[in-house]
Amino acid sequence: MSPTSEPAALPSVEAVADGCLLVSHRLTEWVGNAPTMEEDVALGNIALDLLGQARGLLSFLGDEDQLAYFRDADKFANPAICASPNGDFARTMLRQVFVDCWLEQVWSTLTEHEAEVVRGVAAKAVKENAYHRRHSRSWVLRLGDGTEESRRRLLLALEELWPLTAEITVPGWRESVTGVLVAATVPVPTAASVDDSAAAACASARRELLAEMQSLARAHPGASW
Amino acid sequence: MTTAAPRAWNVLAEVMDPEIPVLSVLDLGIVRDVHESADGHEVRVDVTPTYSGCPATEVIVADIRAALSASYDEVDIRVRLSPAWTTDWMSQAGRDKLREFGITPPNGRALLPVLGEDRPDACPRCGSRDVEQLAGFGSTPCKALWRCVTCREPFDYFKVH
Question: In what order do the strands lie in the sheet with B74-79?
Answer without folding.
Answer: B31-36, B42-47, B74-79
